[in-house]
Amino acid sequence: MSGENPSRSSSGEALAEPRIETTPSPSRSSSGEALAEPRIETTPSSSRSSSGEALAEPRIETLLDDADRAFRDVLDATPDGAWFAPGRLNLVGEHTDYNGGFVLPLALERGAVACVRRRDDDLVRVHSTDLGSTVQVRLGDVGPDAGLDWAAYVAGVGWAAVQRGLPVPGIDLTVSSNVPAGAGLSSSAALSCVTARAWADLAGWDLPDVEIAALGRDAENHVAGAPTGVMDQLASVCGRKGHALEIDTRSVEITWLPFDPASAGLALLVIDSRTPHALVDGAYAERRESCRRAAAALGVEELRDVPVDGLEQRLAGLPDLLRRRARHVVTDSDRVEQAAALLTSGADPRELGPLLDASHASMRDDFEITVPTVDTIQRAAVAAGAYGARMTGGGFGGCVIALVDAAAVDRVTAAVTDAAARAGHPTPVAFVAEPGDGARRLR
Ligand code: GLA
User: Fold this and answer.
1) Number of domain units in the chain
2) Are residues 219 and 329 in the same domain?
3) Ligand 1 atom with the shortest distance to the CA of 96
4) For residue 425, how far is its CA from the centre of ligand 1 (angstroms)?
5) Which of 258, 293, 313 lies at the terminal end of a domain, its last residue?
6) pTM of the model
7) Which of 100, 105, 192, 297 makes a 20 to 30 Å CA pair with 86?
8) How far is the CA of 229 from the centre of ligand 1 (A)?
């Protein structure tokens, strides 16, 4: 897997690392398993599916047990502690974060649990219980193009810390996650941020949360080669229970806004289309490049600098494709500001609905990042009574979020499942999300 990068230690001694071993996972796989029946998975607080089926996804305690057991069985060692970092769900503001615009994510209660031990040497040993894969590499061999596969999200954090001149000890780490990969819920940020939080605590780096997030992002951008913006890692590190985060991605200023759908009799239903995307694919980078070209053609530093007032006139001189790309970014960033104003004023969260629908239409028609599976689900959710629905995350698959009456969760889930079946799409999996806390030490 890592074949083209024969690694050497700084002394020139030949090493077998980076070494990636993949074995059948001793535990469950967190995604990809075949689902015969529609399944509703809820967070523990809202507990059960219509059929009374218990939570199918492992709880944090189970993830901790898995990571802890693997530490002893696979790494043959005892961890110094355990950490958690959540995946994120973006309410609105998609592909605005690399244009200096606004985003409105929240941290999920799902995430990655890592057991970690500080080492006395420069070795990084990591094991994923979900993938059944173990990777071992010397810190000096970590960097762009190191061929580390998934372990780039872990070892890359050490590389990012070295770039900042921080003292970086080696670590042993095992990780177990219940964020489905490629679903637009930032399983990768959960991994890079749980690593950054743990490494900082063990090495004694005294960094503010935004810097912890930046370590995770640098690992993703430079070592894993995923050209993400700033949103995912900030949400994973800085999330707060009961709150969404309005982030000005230019100043990286965060405003925590109360968002508690349950107290308004609502549920934020997350419907995984089970059409995974991959951010390292070219389409994400292509959208970034289109935005850069549109900004250059408009004579602004970033699309953030284009006011929404009189937008059509401002964009009129652009070629059609760039005009639509820019229109999506400017209007979606504006929808974040509208949504934030609603939450700030304490308005009924149902009023967010039309903004979600408009965001989806903009992603579908102007930014062209939706796919038939998610369009079918979005339409079916709205037809079944959702106040609003949109795809969330980077796009080209992944999840749809729908704001629904708490009592309508089963009905909307059944409707989207039925619509997906009729269209010949994979059976979706749904769960109810509640805003949770950001990255933290568990023990
Ligand atoms: C991915 C990236 C984020 C952001 C979203 C789209 O999740 O990691 O930085 O660009 O796509 O909003």
Assistant:
1) 2
2) no
3) 12
4) 25
5) 258
6) 0.90
7) 100
8) 6
Token pair for 405 = 């009456």
Tell whether 113 is covered by a domain: yes
230 and 368 fall within a common domain: no
Question: In sequence order, what DSSP letters do the residues of 168-225 get, joined into one string?
Answer: ---EEEEEEE-SPTTSSS-HHHHHHHHHHHHHHHHHT----HHHHHHHHHHIIIIII-
Residue 3 has pLDDT above 60, yes or no: no
Over residues 14-33, the pLDDT tens digits come to 334 467 776 544 333 333 33
Q: For ligand 1, pick from 88, 95, 187, 287 the residue to mutate: most ligand atoms within 8 Å of CB.
A: 95
The encoded tokens of residue 373 equal 């599976």
Please tell me the distance between residue 96's alpha carbon and the centre of ligand 1 in angstroms.
Answer: 8
Mean pLDDT across the chain, nearest whole number? 89
Q: Retrieve residue 401's tokens.
A: 């979020």
The range of the structural domain enclosing residue 422 comes to 261-433
CA-based radius of gyration for the chain: 21
The SS3 of residue 122 is coil
- Of 273, 440, 424, 264, the closest CA to residue 349 belongs to 264
DSSP assignment letter at 71: H
Q: Which atom of ligand 1 is nearest to the CA of 90?
A: 12
Tens digit of each residue's pLDDT (9 = 90 or more) over 374-391: 999 999 999 999 999 999
Longest dimension (CA), the chain: 65
User: Is ligand 1 within 6 A of the CB of residue 366?
Assistant: no
Those residues with Cβ within 8 angstroms of residue 422's Cβ, 6 or more apart along the chain or in another chain:
none
- Report the candidate in 73, 108, 57, 67 with the shortest Cα–Cα distance to residue 87: 108
Would you please indicate which residues are annotated as catalytic (active-site) residues?
Answer: 232
Q: What is the pLDDT of residue 430?
A: 97
Residue of 124, 121, 138 lying closest to 14 (CA atoms): 138
Residue given tokens 């009129």 in the structure block:
316
Query: In angstroms, what is the span from residue 279 Cα to ligand 1's centroid?
Result: 8
Domain edge (last residue) among 258, 290, 312: 258
Which of the listed residues 193, 218, 228, 250 should we mutate to test ligand 1's pocket, taking the one with most ligand atoms within 8 A of CB?
Answer: 228
Is 5 within the bounds of a domain? no
Q: Are 36 and 179 in contact (CB under 8 A)?
A: no
